[in-house]
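batch_manifest entry 22 of 60
target: Rhs element Vgr protein
source organism: Chromobacterium rhizoryzae
requested by: lab member K.T.
priority: normal
notes from requester: please return tokens only, no post-processing; we will run our own comparison against the previous entry in this batch. if the run fails, retry once and flag.
--- input ---
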Amino acid sequence: MDLNNPVITPNARQIVGRFLLNGVEVPFVSFEVDSNSFYSADTFSAELAISALPKSMGLLNWWANQTSIEVQISVGLLSKQAADWETLIIGGVDRWSFNPARYTVSVEGRDYTAKLIDVKTAEKFANQTASQIATTLAKRHGLRPVVVPTKTLAGTIYKIDHVQMKDERSEWDLLSYLAGVEGYQVYVKGKDLHFEPTTKPTPKDINQLKSQLEAVNKKRDQAASKSMALNNQAMDLVTQSDKARAAGNQAQADALLSQASALNQQAGKVQADAHAETDGPKAALEKQIAAGMNYDGTYVIRWVQPNTSHPAQANCSEDLKFERDLTLAKGVTVQIRSWTKGKAFTVSYPQNTAKGITPGQATAKRQVYSIVRSGLTRDAAMKLAQQTHKQITDHEMRMSCSLPGDNILMPSTIVRVEGTASPFDQLYFVDSVRRSFSFDSGYSMSLTAKNHNPNSMILP
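--- output ---
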């Protein structure tokens, strides 16, 4: 089942924002929250009116004396049936500024990923797995570990030692490295540190897609039957009009002809509306069934091609954009250089010599990416080269758009684009979701995504 309904209908909703400053709810003018892919911290910014703050917080002396300020931002979508509240971010203020002309305070900060980013240490983690290291670091910073256990010991060059060195690295760099090696994703949500397998599309029964396609085709057939019936009625009226005209009843003939014309227009509208509603889903379902792209739990961006009755339509704003990286499309070679037991070696994928610039050329035929990784066997190095090659080449496709704000779309969400009748109809992994909330502009969000999981890149 899709996470959202891509069919847009006229609707009104009540949206409520909640801003907590050191645990105290305070009024706000506006805020923005940028939820990034998992190898970086989520960020926030907000503007607060000094006159609306609690009496103690409305003094510059209070702000100047704070050594740490915690911010929690939540949004609620309220209806008669339910209240959908989502905490968008919990974090600390990195900087604040006072605007005396506007009498406002602006704050900027990051979520609690910053606790790991800002700390460096030369500590060794002897004979520990990646999940054990993640648990240790989470508890050290007062975060609750939400960790899926791993089995492999995080060693460096020699397997005998099984020690993961962290020289001049932040704790977050270490966790990101370990997550990449294990095929995991690491991120902080609220006060929880997540270390778990990467997000993957969830397969669903292809028969469900076929049933959906049958329902779409049935709707098209019903529209075609209704349109045909209206056209037949119009033809009968034309026949009656001809008879009335032959009998000398000009007024009746014109009236009947006018009714026939109206029925013809109605028949055309029935067909056009049916195609506008079903062309995109039909093409997308047929493509998914043919390619086996049957995935559940995705966020749908649906494009409807323009026709004679309406312009192009989509469940996002007019800034929907697609990109393709032609440099990567030319070809990529990945080289892995490693050594084990004192012997160095290099493997390449694809298994031909990496081609650089040759005489008479200004650029290389293929992009060459080199990774140095110690302690790998040739088989392990080749597997890493193949995995990295796929990750790099999958960067070709990107998409971005703006939408009305909701509490569904998150960095862990997989987006499915349909209806463009092009190779851009596929799955995308979210890079960033930027949400904005203000009295003037309401609740909106912008999305950037790519056809590659940003959490699966192994850091060299």
